[in-house]
Amino acid sequence: MLDLNTIWFILVGVLFTGYAMLDGFDLGVGALHLLVKKDEDRRIFLNAIGPVWDGNEVWLVTGAGALFAAFPMVYAGVFSGFYLPFMALLCGLIFRAVAIEFRSKEPWGWWRQMWDLGFSLGSIGSSFLIGLTMGNILVGVQLDATGNYIGGVRALFNPYAILLGFTTVALFAMHGSIYLVMKTEGELQAIVRRWVNHTIGLFLFFYLILNVATLIYAPHLLEILRARPWLIAVFVLNVLVVLNIPRQNHKGNDFAAFLSSCASMALLMALFGLTVFPNMVLSMPNPELSLTIYNAASTPKTHMIMLIMAIIGIPIILAYTVSVYFIFRGKVKLTAHSY
Amino acid sequence: MDVEILSRIQFAFTIMFHYLYVPLTMGLGVVLVIMEAMWLKTGSPKYHNMARYWTRVFGLTFAIGVATGIVLEFEFGTNWAAYSRFVGDIFGSALAAEGIFAFFLESGFLAILLFGWNKVGPKLHFFATCMVCLGAHFSAVWIVIANSWMHTPAGFRIEYRGEIMPPGFVPTADQILNSRAVVEDFWAMIFNPSSMDRLAHVVVGCWQAGAFLVISISAYYLLRGRHLEFARTSMKVALIFAAVASLLQLATGAKSADGVTKNQPAKLAAMEGVFKTQSNAPMAIVGWLDMEKQEVIGLQIPGMLSILVGGSTNTVVTGLDAFPKEDWPPVQAVFQFYHLMIAIGMALIGIAWFGMFLWWRGWLFNTSNPIVRLYYGVLVLSVLGPQIANQSGWFTTELGRQPWIVYGLMRTSQGLSEVVKANHVIASLIMFTFIYALLFAVFLYLLNRKIQRGPDDEEESEEMPTSWVALMERRKGQARGAG
User: pTM score, two decimals?
Assistant: First the structure.
């Protein structure tokens, strides 16, 4: 039987996985946004994510809230320790949000160009910083006995974390391009469909380098791998799922390609979770100071209360999230109240 | 400047900016529900055009509200890590509940509210509007509960070095970093002594903000002689809403003040400028505090505060002298913000009910009357009233909580992130200043453009989906049949 700490480790993971799957594609659309030049095409991109991006971002908000409640030491340690990157992340998230709203309100070229830039750079920057954070957690950061990060800002920009940052940008761009194939038609769709192969290639390229880099920068992960050899199976499955995407894309099964992409994100997050478990933030060079699902947790009572809330809330959330996606299914049509 | 004051300025600045938009979305949300309900009931395109127009304004405020809201959730961890560790068990769960029960609801149905006009039928659209409005109110419920716990902590025990301490235990400065508040009684924590009073006061304040925004823009159209039909109807809806909300606000405010008297006497003493514990305590209408002589200079009603607190002039009101000076809130600021809020609150009651009086006499839309024109001028500016009052109210309550971050348990200076340096906070503060200045300028510009462009006046709105037009015709037929 799973204990409450493990359940909440999984639930926080599920929330962040939901975030990666959903906001991942609209961050990816942002990364690709400047590649089309025609104003109408850019509007189609924005309106492809228009009704849903806000709800997608809620997964991050709720994930962070759940982290705060279930593992306050992790929330406090990571958010204060990664102060400047997180402020930059907020800057990116704010800009991309308001850019979607503001961009098409005026017809002027400079106005639209400015918000297009804000949307795209905000999306790329946010993706990169999310990856950077995960990279640091994987490779380990210097913690003190309270759980404060004491390694300084510069140490956060280590090669491994930066590489994972780029990998995340490529991953979201891949996910975004696959999403766009579903939402576009005609000439634009043909262009986007060609992108899918490139973004998959780019992602696999970074993913491969990342795995090589793990050998160099994160040897402790290899020890974990030795202890948990079945992780290899998750990894192989993940690569197969990614390779399934161009197959489905080629056959024109756009929804299957998108589901495949979602599955690959879920597998990546599962790989991440199964690797670090039961640590949440690995301490290096003093692993005994790591924040784990036990020493970083709130009380069992709070875990129980929140579990009840989650059991009540999550089915309802899933029901109307699916409904909203169903209502807004199909190709984008620009109308009077589009962005 | 040290990290503490910088982090406080940053939190205050970012939450104030966020709170320009939150009340507008909550208040406008209610207005949208009313307008769509009237459209469904009457089938008149007038209400449909109104709902359309106010939805556009709503969408603008909502977008900025969302973008600036996520900052606050991050800031508990980034700037107040020690606080977050101390309250994670309690504050964290309220925040997570806000995500699960409020934000998903709000954002999911927002899609239908903003973009669903051609995708769903009118009834489902109305339902979505109700859910967005409900979600916004749920959000207020959870965040005000969490905040109220910081003022009147209840339903918890202190855990020190893993041991649960007896009730009433207050950690010393040495103990605080190894202590945390853990939940003992969930419902006592939710219904802590101040949460429901403060929730009512906050929600009604938001309604006022939405109502007076609609009033202000409608008055502007009436003064300019534009969109008259639209403006008159919007004005009527919003005026009733404002009149009710403004009176309600008096009641919720009185109830809140009552709670403060019981639970946070130091805050009450600062609000009213009571330095010495005394019976026959006066109530100040306006004034300035002479901090040297410790007295109020200004207009006062003798004995009134004692009467309000205990029903008689003999009631003893606890003064600031009952507290060591290091536990005093910033008295002058709390006093001034409190009185500013009260003054505006009273003025809003006057403005709203004067409008009701004009309406009753049949003069409300007589724009040739100079008094009515002058009144409209006041109405155009009235949108600022709830905004300033809401912000002043938050200043009163949050400054009044100082020097505590959790009242009586943890000092604000003890809640900081130990690892965040002053220059980091300066950097982020500069960043937020630039971004928010830009956002505010763009917001004002776009709002003004929406106002100048105005609603669609045509009887048959070109935007209305065909299925909706059919329903409207049916409603019209029914109305004719009934008439």
Answer: 0.91
